[in-house]
Amino acid sequence: MKKKIVSLCAIAFVCISINAQKINWVSMDEALALQQKNPKKIMVDVYTNWCGPCKMLDKQTFQNEDVANYVNENFYAVKFNGEGNDTFTYKENEFSNPNYDASKANRRNSSHQFANYLDLRGYPTIAFFDEDGNFLYPLTGFYKPNQLEFYLKLFVADKHKEIKTKEEFQAYFDAFTPQFKVK
Description:
alpha/beta, two-stranded antiparallel ribbon, globular, 5-stranded mixed sheet
């Protein structure tokens, strides 16, 4: 009986792993270097280890096949722990987390300098950068695949440059038809 249960669990795990789509995550340093060779926008998933909505975003949105394919094709995708201890250079400034406490790795920790620089207000936040590495916009909170699709396509098409008022944004939003498949 135990062997059957273990076998069924193994089969289920393999099936789930096969169906889960993968975004090609890189570090911020790697994304900025890749932009030098092949300019693309950058999408940064700013998360923390303790954040429940961050885990939901990973499972329900970033593993969606259409989201993963679209992000991989149009963005350099970065996973960044907003309370982690990574060190990297952005716009000739080095960013780190000098008050990071390793004993709090899975609890609330001190905020990373880069999260402060971007003036992030919560987690998860998806931060968008243009092809030159300039910060565009922070999208805070959990977004389902079709909700995120709107922003992914807005930034890829550079529509954010054309929209100047709340009314223009609302009109663009109302006219948008999501195409990503959601299970």
